[in-house]
Structure formats: C-alpha cells, structure tokens
Amino acid sequence: MNPIKKIFELLEYDFSDAGKFAKLGPLFDATKTFFFLPSPKNKLGPFIRDHLDLKRYMSIVIISLLPVLFFGMYNTGYQSGLARGETLDFWPSFLSGAWVVMPIIIVSYGVGFFWEILFAAIRRHPISEGFLVTGLLFPLTLPPTIPLWQVAMGISFGVVIGKEIFGGTGRNILNPALTARAFVFFSYPVSMSGNIWVAGADAVDGITGATALAVNAEGGSSLFSTLSDQGFSLSNLFFGFVPGSIGETSALCCLIGAVFLMVTRIGNYRIILGGIAGLIITAILFYFLPGTRGTWADAGPLYHLCAGGFLFGISFMATDPVSAPGTNPGRWIFGFLIGFLTVILRVANPAFAEGVMLAILFMNVFAPLLDHLVLKHRISKRIPNV
Amino acid sequence: MIKRSFFALSKPRLTYDLLEPNPDEPQTISLPDHLTLLLADTIDSTRPALIKKGDPVKKGQKLALYMDSTAYAISPVAGTIKSIENYSDDFGKIDTCITIAHDPEKASDIAPLDISEEISFAALHLQKLPGAPPFDILADENFNIRTIIITGAETDLLTTTSQYVTTSHIRDLEQGARILKQITNVSKICIALPETLNGNAPIDSLQVLQTGAVYPDTLPAMIMKDHLDMVLPAGKTPEDMGICFIRAEAVVSLARTFETKALGFDKHLTLVDKTGTRHRIKTAIGTPLSSIFKHLEIQVNDLDRIIIGGPMRGTAIFTTHHPVTPDMDTVVIQDREILPKISDTPCVNCGKCIQVCPASIQVNLLVRFLEVDQYEEAADKYDLDACIECGLCSYVCTSQIALGQYIRLGKHELRKLRADV
Q1: Total domains present in chain B
Q2: Which residues in chain B are closer than 8 Å to A29, comparing Cβ atoms?
C-alpha cells in the first residue's frame, strides 16, 4: 500500500472525534485531502460534479503567481547586488534573492496557517483552501527588506480581521492579503515607504533608493529623463529590473499571470481589462492637463501601467472573486474605477506614492453597492408579470 | 464518468449519449410476484374508500381511492390487493402505494376497454400508459394547447430510452401522432430528434426539430427557445404557453392501444449500473427495482445511490422496492465510493454558475437568499422562477454547493407560500 496513505490511516483514529487530538481534526483533514481526494459523501443531489473544486481553483492561482514569484526572487538578489555595486549573474542573484524572500513566505504561511487552524478547530470546520493564495499574495506585496516580525503581524491582521471575523473564506468583504498589507503599510511606514532599501537585512545592507513612483523631476526637466537617469527606463519598468516590492516589479510577469488566469477563467477578464482601460483613460486625461510637467500626472498611460504595482494588483488582487462584484456589468465598473482611482491617488495625493492597494480596498467596499445598482437597473428593465 | 479539460476556454460540454448504430433488443424482466403502483392521492381514513386490502383486481382495472379522486392507477396484472399504504415522495409529498399480489392463474381476467377516439376518454383511461401521456392537460380547456412536441431526444445524460423507442417503433410513432392529432384537434405536432439520429429514422409525416448534442439543448424551455422562437417567461410552464411535450414512448403506446384494443404495460428503461454499463430493459409498470437488480445480478449495498431520471435532473430514492412508473426512463446506480463529496464552503463568487446557466440567472447572488430562506426576495429580484432546473450550476460549483437542490427547494417553498396567500 501507498506509504503516505498508511501514515494517514495510522493517525486517523487519534484525530477523529473520539481520539486524543480531536481538536486538531481539521488540520488532519486538510493535510489528508492535500494528498488524497476527499472522502465525505453527499446524501442529496447533485449526483455528478465537475472536478474543479476550491483546492484546484486556488492551485491555479498559485501557478499563475509562479512567474512573478521566481522573477521576484531573482530581482531581489540582482537589486541587492546592484546596491552593493556588483552585477550578479543569474544563479547567484536568484539564490541570494531566494535567501531573502523564502523566509518572508515561510513566515507568512506559517503564521497564517496557525490562525486558520485555530479558527477551523474552534469552529469545527475543515480548513479552507482560500488561505493558500492569501499566504503567497501577501509576501509578494512586501519589500524584501521587511522585518519578519512585521510579516507575522501583517498576516495575522489580514487573516483574523480581514477574513475570519467575517466567517472565513467566501464571507470576507475585503481582500485579506491587501488588508494585511494595508495594516503593515500604515503601522510601519518606515519599512513600507518609497525608500525601500533602507532597512538592514544582511543581503541589502544599508543602501537607500527610491521606487519609480516616488520620483519627481525637478527644475523643469521631463519626468522621463529623470526616471531613466535613475534606472527607471520604460523597458526596465516593463521587464522589472527595478527595486520595489517582491512581486510587483515586473509588468511582464504580471501580464503572463493575468493571461493565464483569464484563459483558465479563474480570474475574470472583465475586471482586468476594465482596470487597464480605466488606468489608461485616466492617465491620458491627466497627460493633457496643463502645468503638470515633471510630475506623475505627466507620465502618460505606459509609465502608469508599468511602474508600481498596478498590474500585480489588478491581476491577482482585484480578481479575488469574493470581494469583487458578482454581476458582469458590476465587474467592468469595478475594474474601471480601480484603474481610475489608482491614477488619481498617484497623481493627486502627495501622501501616497502608490495608489493601487487603496484603490482596490476602496472598491472592495463598494462591490456590493455596484451589484445592487446593476440589479436595480436590470429589474427596472424587466417586463412586469402582471 | 464525465470529464472536462483543464483549460476552461469554453463552458463544460456535457453531451447526450447517442443510441448505438444497431441497438440490441431490450432484456425482458418476467412479472414479479408483487407489483407496486404509486398513486398521487392521499389516504383519508374518514372517507369511504373504493378499494381495500384483499380486493381482487383484474388486469387493466382502474384503481382510484375515492369517488371524486382524479388520480388513478391501472393494474398491470390480475390478482389481489395486498396493501394500501402511505408513501412519502420528494419534499415530503404524501402519495399512496398499492401493492398487488400477482396471480398468474387469472391471467385471462382482463377488464374490458371501450375505446373511443375522444380526449376525455384518453384522460380517464390512458393516462398511465407507458410514457405517461399528459392527456389531462390536453383535455383541460384552460390550457389551450396549440402545439404538441414529441420528445424523441433524451432530456438527461447517460440514457438512450427515447431514442431507442423512436427508432425501433417508427411506424407506431407515426400512427400514434395521427391518432393524437385526431383526438386533440391540435394543428401542429412536431418531433424533437437528435441531429445524428435523424438519418436513421426517416419520419415523413411529422415536422422534425433537430436538437443539439450538448446538454441542456433538449429541455422543453430550450427547444421552445431554439426552435419555436419563444422564450419561456419566468414562472410559466410550456403548457401555459400552449405547448405540450409528450414522450415518444407515450405516442407509441397510444398507437398500440388503439391497434390491439387493450392497454399496454411494458415500459422501456435504461439502467446504468455501477460500472457505467447501460442495460436496456423492458418490464411491466409496477415491477419493483429490486427485481430488475436481481435479474441483472446487480448488488446494491447500503449507502449506494439509486437515481431515477438521470444524473442531472433526477432524484434519489430511498428504497429498492420503488416500482417502475410510467414516466421512468432512466435508473442510475452510483456506488457509494464515487458519490460527490459534501461541503459547507460558502460561495466564493467565482461565477462558474452564471457562465453556465442557460437562463442567465445570477446564481451566486440567488443562493445567498436561498440559504437564509428568503424565497420571495429570491424570486422578486434574483429570477428564482426563471430557472429551468437543468442542474448545471451544481455540476460546476467550485464551492460544491448543492445549488440545484437549493433552487428546487426554494421553488417548492415559494409555491407553498403563494398557495397560502
């Protein structure tokens, strides 16, 4: 017999209701269903069912995140090398980057799963698969220099306040990963601000640099030349060879993930395309506004698209179906307004260099309202039955 | 059993099973000792009953509980009534089940039948023919039926009963359609057939509606939409719109009855066993399913599931003594090992159900109201009534919510609420 199966069968009794670890039953169940197909059966219909369940659904999101993750590891190593004045090859960059990034991911998963298991055990409910994605999305939105205890604080807030107090996966109003990031962002602004290479992880010792969105041209020179002077040429921004949060730097990798999500129909294309349209249109409007030379209002749609975390956010955060609207017109508006608000926040609010996170969280809150309006419109057009 | 590709570029494509080119004759199941008939009527011990335990019955005798009952059953054999009991059906509906001890010696004891070519006669005597023809609806003047559609295509997956009956009894079918036209005065009679079957079954006298191969193309509402250019309004039945659907087998039985001047009782059905093998069966109405399982040597264990009516739209029954009924086309047996798992995960809003719903219902929003019993809200704002009960939403649901079951229960509760008002 399969040796793994044997282990599970040996342990099965201890984790059952009569066993000594009955409280940890959900943990056992989650681990077992990770290896083997689940066993509980249904007494009523449906009698047949598609193979796509929540675990596989979430696994596809994880797969779509792999390009972003691997590039993030490579770029972290590469950028820290640059900061020390060396130009590293691929493997040394990747390995030194992984050395920095992996602990963040491990802490995020470890602490997050602790809360998940705790809540599942209290509620006597199987562990939900939703956290598989949250636990990876959150580290990707963080700068690599973040202290690990802040990662732990952030993910705890995201899981407990962002999700579990509302009732767990499927019931949260806000995207839990973004809630976690917002917590870290506002609580520890030094670690999260535009100058992200300040803090002292060993790999990136004591070096300062700004992200692209924190750059403003001075003395009447154009934004583009200032940006490329500091290494933020459009191609660097597109491919991602710039400092920034782990997962967000490469527009290309985000686009690969977005296409994969759209093709597998896990991420809704309406949100992604609506968001990109909203960003482009708003950026063009600002571009034609007079008197903005040298600021991000003057940047135009391509720079807005490639710089910062917009593509990451719209592909992986805004498409979280739970916190997005459930109606199709609602999804178009939701995406469009995220794009719109992102540019507005970037341009008009000096306190925040980056606006995606707040734009998405803000629109998450409005998602039920969008659904409500769409349905109201639909009902008003319906022919009355009487 | 049914697979779907990893990349969901299109909706899941569940295709109907097609009849094999040279179908085998059905296996005939011999008459069992006891037959059971289901009667859509409730026992009321305060009223004088027309039948009681111990009464002798003739073959073809009409059995009704009370003088004013409209529901009736017809005994397929001669013998004695062994018991009359309550039987609880779907959603707690109480029916009556009559068990008849079959007496082979009285085989010639047949109730006389005065055939007349009138719809009222058909409603009173031919309602329980194999295929369950809806003569009561055709006779009811409130409905004003203008079109009759014979369903020669299956309405669920895995089965081939209708296609088999259509192709193997094509002359009877045409004759039956002529009789139907005569007794109902309905001007338009069509037959719905799968595209691929049409070549094998040349039907000259009827207009053929070619249905697609993908579920749910053959459901009544979809046929109306695709072929009659008529969208079924929410909460209405096809009969309300003047369209009546009738099984091919019912039309064949009608022709047989007029030809032989006697009622027929042999019902065709497709039985899908645990390995997925199809068995074509011909057996008398009233035969308990257990006799069929015994004949086919199918072992049914505890927690295995017996589904009547196919995997998408069927209902599970709780006993192997459930009889073959006139409207039973399909029986599926599922081993307890392969039943889909139960889950109490909340909806994650993934949208698969909306993508797949043929009636464009916002199932993800609808289910939130059904979960908390707000049926009127669900009907007013979220199109509960528009559902055509194809079951595709529960097939695709990522959170594995029994959406179809919620909707059926919701509609049932809503009918109760509206009836109370």
Answers
A1: 4
A2: none
